[in-house]
Structure formats: structure tokens, C-alpha cells
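Researcher: Go.
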Amino acid sequence: MIVRSFAPVAAADARILILGSMPGVASLEAGEYYAHPRNVFWPIMGALFGAGPHLPYAERVTALKTSGVAVWDVLQACERQGSLDSNIRSEVPNDFAAFFAAQPAIRRIGLNGAKAAATFRRYAAHFLPANAEVHVLPSTSPAHAARSFEAKCDLWRSALLP
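Model: Structure:
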């Protein structure tokens, strides 16, 4: 089955970009980034930027934009059954040349998990702004529960906040 990602969540002055690989089934059905109830993305965003899951989605997005955080996926489209990154085939990357041209203030990039990191290196790393820092972060997916929430949150905080 061919699945497609969403448009980026980004204000023109975004300084931080968080990239996943491709939204999972729950997110695609909801039309929202990180919609699976056991994904810890929004709890981490709550701890770091006040964009927690207690807020309606539109308010979370606004809180991220106000904090200078953009959210997107490395892939624009792919073939995938289910939600697992290991099932992704026929990858079509997003247009990072245009994105970075439109978002010149991006200085930190957080890659949400190993698949996002691998696909970013393959398709987008050569478009990076010269002074941008890239951090591979532990996945927020419920499929990756080896680390505690606190440990994940600490790693995300140290990578994304100065």
C-alpha cells in the first residue's frame, strides 16, 4: 500500500527540525503527526516546549511553531504495510532543498529513530545548512520501549535545547 506523509509543521523562523521517517497507521488515520496513543513524542514535546498531549492537536502545533520547532518526515511517500519502519519500501524523499531554502534559520535537526537517520543520510544530508547540527535520537515509537520515558526525554532535551 502506498502511504504519503503530511505537509511540514513549520513557521518561517523555525530553528529546530524534528524528522520522522513516515507517519504510522494511527497518524495517517487521524491526519496528525504522532497520533498513536503510546508514542511518547507529544509527552516529550510537552516536557520540552509545552506542547503536551493534554492540549488539542492544533494548540500543540501552535506551541511548537511558537517555540521555533518544525516537524516533518524524511519521506514524502513509500510502500508500507502497517506502521513498522522495517516494512518501508519504494522510498520517495521530501524536497529538502526547497525546505531548507524556505527555513534558513534551522540550526538543529533531531532524527526520530534509526530509520529516520538512515533515510536522512541517504536523501537529505547533502542539503543541510552549513552550520546545522544533526542528532540521532531514540525513537518515540511504542515499538521502541527499551529506554524509559525519562531517559528518552533527557536525550531529546540535551540534543534540541541549547
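Model: DSSP finds six helices and seven strands in the chain.
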